[in-house]
Each structure stands twice: as structure tokens, then as C-alpha cells.
Amino acid sequence: MDLKKLIIKDKLPRHIAIIMDGNGRWAQSRGNMRVFGHQNGVESVKQVVEASGELGIEYLTLYAFSTENWNRPRAEVDALMGLMVKTIEAQTESLHENNVRLTAIGELDDLPPAVKKQLQNAMDYTSGNTGLNLVLALSYSGRWEITSALKTIIEEIQKGNVDPGTIDTCLIETYLNTSNIPDPELLIRTSGERRISNFMLWQLAYTELYFSQVLWPDFRKKDFYEAIIDFQRRDRRFGRIKEQLGTETVKYQG
Ligand code: IPE
Ligand code: IPE
Ligand code: MG
Predict the structure, then answer these.
(1) Do 23 and 218 touch, CB atoms closer than 8 A?
(2) How far apart, in whole angstroms, are the C-alpha atoms of residue 243 and residue 254?
(3) Considering only CA atoms, which residue is closest to atom 8 of ligand 2?
(4) pLDDT tens digits, the chain, 254 residues: what are they?
(5) What residues does each domain of the chain span?
(6) Identified catalytic residue from 21, 40, 133, 183
(7) What is the pLDDT of residues 169-222, one digit of tens each?
(8) HSE of 165 in the Cβ direction (CA atoms, 13 Å)?
(9) Distance (Å, rounded) from C-alpha 200 to C-alpha 217?
(10) CA atoms within 13 A on the CB side of 93
(11) Which of 237, 245, 228 is closest to 6 using CA atoms?
């Protein structure tokens, strides 16, 4: 069956976020090194980027490397960073041709210079594009992001630029890395793990969570469509009751 046909076009999430997990297990179950799984995960990235563009999704955020991932063995971190440079370099032209605008969230200053340079180049090159916004979360964690925002807000208060009395959820949002990005309506995590692992802690307040058993390197367009179809069958109540839904546009206003 063509799953894509089951997707309701006017009920698409504006923003989908993915915790791409299971690369290591995928490789190890084949008797290979973990890095082989990361390499094979690149095809899955291509598939979800392409599918998002085709469907008209506005934002796709991919969790590519967490703050905690710096604690992995040095060889794996180096291999991941090398793969990052290679993949961004190889994909920049094709992203551009597909009208994709690449951005990134996270502590980018902690990335090796080669990654930073390649990433900056790709972001500059695609900055004028008007199709899918592809957001890479690199050296990112939710607690890091909220802590950075807090530090900046305190500095602004000390400089007299922010009146503490005006602090509300909207103001805090403007200091997050995602200040210009709507909260994700749908979060997908692959590999059967059911946790958030410090991802978008603020932004996921009312996000629908979808856990897939598929290991990331096996994740294909059909798996992505399945997640969207599942999402579209849910009631999003935002604290209200079912009978209130449909009578007005119910939106989460945090
Ligand atoms: C996800 O796959 C990729 C990154 C975290 C960079 P993992 O490397 O976590 O794979 P598993 O979870 O060990 O199988
Ligand atoms: C989360 O996956 C981070 C990314 C996918 C980049 P991990 O595999 O690092 O998460 P935990 O440590 O198992 O929770
Ligand atoms: Mg993992």
C-alpha cells in the first residue's frame, strides 16, 4: 500500500524532530565497527530530508550529536566528526538544488574547526532557500540550551536591557537556539529506546512522541510516513477536553 496517500495534506506537522538512534547496534549486529552504522545512517538522513521536502514539511530537526556524546570513546567521536565534514560537503549542492535551508543548533564553538567551517559554508550557501528548513542539532542538549539562555538573560538584566518583571515564556523563547522555529509537533525516536536524552526539553512540552523499533540505518520514507500517519490520528488537547476540539483552532500557547 502507498502509505504516502494516507497522509492528510492539510494536517501536516510544521516541525518534525528526530532522535536518530541505533547506528551502533545496527553495525554490531552485522559484526562491524560502530562507525559503519553511522556511515549507513547517512542514507536514512537523505530519505527523511527528501520525504520532508516532498510533503512540504517546514522544519525538520535532526539530533546528530549530543553534549553527552562527547563522552564516547575518542575514536568514535573523531569518526563521527569526520563523517560530518564529509557528508555536509557531499550534500551541500544537492540540498541547495532542493531549496533546503540548512541551519544548526547547539554549542557549535565546541565542534572541530573543520566541521564548523564546512557547516558554516553549507549554511551560508543555502541561506536564501525557501523550502524545507533542515536544522542539525550538533553538540546540543536541552539543559545546555536552557542554561545558556538563562546566563544571557541575567547578563541583559545586569546591563539594564531586560526588566525582570517582563520575563515570561515568550521572552525566554527568544533566548533559545530555536527562537525563530516553532515547537515540534512530532518527535520520532528510532531503535526502540523510549527516552528524550536531553533533547529539546523546553520545546517538547506538548510534542507528540513516536517511538519506532527500526534502527536508524534501516529507517526509510515508509517508516517516516507511518510516524506522520500515527500522529495525524491523535487528538491534541493541550489541557482541554475532546469536545472542545474542532470548535476552534486549538494551539499550544506556552
Ligand atoms: C545514534 O546511534 C548516533 C549518535 C548518537 C551519534 P548510536 O551510536 O547511539 O547507536 P546505538 O544506540 O549505540 O545503537
Ligand atoms: C541520543 O542518542 C543522541 C543522538 C541521537 C545524537 P544516544 O544514543 O546518545 O542516547 P542515550 O545515551 O542512549 O540515551
Ligand atoms: Mg544510541
Answers:
(1) no
(2) 21
(3) 21
(4) 799 999 999 999 999 999 999 999 999 999 999 999 999 999 999 999 999 999 999 999 999 999 999 999 999 999 999 999 999 999 999 999 999 999 999 999 999 999 999 999 999 999 999 999 999 999 999 999 999 999 999 999 999 999 999 999 999 999 999 999 999 999 999 999 999 999 999 999 999 999 999 999 999 999 999 999 999 999 888 888 888 887 655 566 66
(5) 11-141+183-233
(6) 21
(7) 999 999 999 999 999 999 999 999 999 999 999 999 999 999 999 999 999 999
(8) 0
(9) 23
(10) 3
(11) 228
3-state secondary structure of 245: strand
Which residue out of 38, 68, 198 has the highest number of ligand 2 atoms within 8 Å of its CB and is therefore the one to mutate?
68
Q: Which residues line ligand 2 (CB under 6 A)?
A: 19-21, 63-66, 68-69, 193, 195, 197
CA distance 183 to 79: 31
Query: If we measure between CA atoms, which residue out of 107, 108, 103 comes closest to residue 133?
Result: 103
Question: Structure pTM?
Answer: 0.96
Residue nearest to atom 3 of ligand 1 (CA): 21
Which residue among 25, 33, 40 has the greatest number of ligand 1 atoms within 8 angstroms of its CB, and so is best to mutate?
Answer: 25
Active site residue 21: yes
CATH 3.30.420.270 fits 11-141+183-233, yes or no: no
Q: How far is the CA of 244 from the centre of ligand 2 (A)?
A: 37
Backbone angles phi, psi at 101, to 5 degrees: -105, 120
Q: How far from chain centre, in Å, is Cα 147?
A: 19
AA identity, residue 139: S
Q: Given 69, 98, 121, 198, which residue is catalytic? A: 69
